[in-house]
Recover the amino acids of this structure.
């Protein structure tokens, strides 16, 4: 029987890929039919992405907008469903267009099966991105 990484291990890999600015490797962690949701997305930004390739296209130029230097204050919460992980964290870095410091707290609910992210619901404060140009790759 094949063993797969735990949801916490998948989250850790995703953070490492994000910090390495390897968005292809980051999106390779998503299942082909994955869903990424942004419940608090403001007008002009998507509230939902369907499929790995939609996530890949959306995040392709993420490092051109936000240069994330570190992900810290990470708290991972297991749930009664072993496939579901709640992650609280802070991402800090620089807004590329302005050089301004960037720091935002996130809460993400991830469903991970067979070592892949099947569903990622990202609760973030859209006001933290006020300086970032509207376009792809502007949410974490």
């Amino acid at each position: 029987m094949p063993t797969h990484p735990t949801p916490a291990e998948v989250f850790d890999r995703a953070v490492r890929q994000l910090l390495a600015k390897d968005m292809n490797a980051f999106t390779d962690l998503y299942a082909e039919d994955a869903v990424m949701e942004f419940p608090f997305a403001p007008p002009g930004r998507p509230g939902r992405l369907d499929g790995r390739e939609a996530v890949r296209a959306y995040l392709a130029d993420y490092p051109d907008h936000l240069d994330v230097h570190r992900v810290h204050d990470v708290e991972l919460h297991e749930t009664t469903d072993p496939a579901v992980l709640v992650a609280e964290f802070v991402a800090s870095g620089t807004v590329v267009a302005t050089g301004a410091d960037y720091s935002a707290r996130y809460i993400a609910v991830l469903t991970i099966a067979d070592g892949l992210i099947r569903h990622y619901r990202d609760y973030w404060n859209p006001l933290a991105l006020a300086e970032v140009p509207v376009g792809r790759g502007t949410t974490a």
